[in-house]
Amino acid sequence: MVTYYRDRDVVVTSGGIRIGGHDYRLRDFVQVWHARGRRQWSAVAGRGALGIAMIAPLVIGALGVLLALVLDASTGTTVALAGGGILVGLAAAPLADVLLELVDRSYDRGSRRMEIWADVRGHRTLLLRTDNAQRFGQIYRALQRALDHDTVPR
Asked: What is the mean pLDDT of residues 55-59?
């Protein structure tokens, strides 16, 4: 028996699938499809906030340097503004690394609820509902591979 996917809640093998506490044989599936729910704007807004947080130090740093050049201030004040602006701008690099990791994770989670449906012996059955886009993709591809390699006619 070939295992295509396994986690604590879902097992997809060449013999069948165990999901949500139910066991299904592959030959019981007439059709399998997926559906996407509505976009969760909170996830999109969170990505936007992360983008702003990455850009903010650069903008503040550039403003500091610009003010140092435009203002007719003493040499000490000009150096302090320019140096402070450069330091704030340089602080953006390590901050951006952390924030980009968070953006990557937000795309893994996705911004929509995903569902896997199947026609099981004539009954429409919801197999899986998840917000995790990466996990959804892994399970759906595993189920497709298992069905493609299933030699029993439906």
From this structure: 86
